[in-house]
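Q: Sequence in, structure out?
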Amino acid sequence: QVQLVESGGGLVQAGGSLRLSCAASQSIFSFNYMDWYRQAPGKQRELVAGITKGGSTNYADSVKGRFIISRGNADNTMYLQMNSLKPEDTAVYSCHARRNPGYHYWGQGTQVTVSS
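A: Exactly. Output:
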């Protein structure tokens, strides 16, 4: 079965940076889309950034200009570079992959905490 494992979360001060990694058990090019979601306490899960197999990217308005989603050279890794972090970025960040039609895979998440 497909496995996604996130890493790179932690505690950082406002204005700092973190890079999250998502390691997949197979080539990320076997997926049509890969995305980063986040969920803060008391809030719904929201899409942060996504990338298609062809390399097209999209970002939530709240992170545009600060976050960058990319793929690693190893073909089984996806990254989320997070810069200029704000306290409101605090959440559990989860890696998600979609393969059409109707296949969805989730990692267990990594905690990101941004202090004031």
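DSSP finds no helices and eleven strands in the chain.
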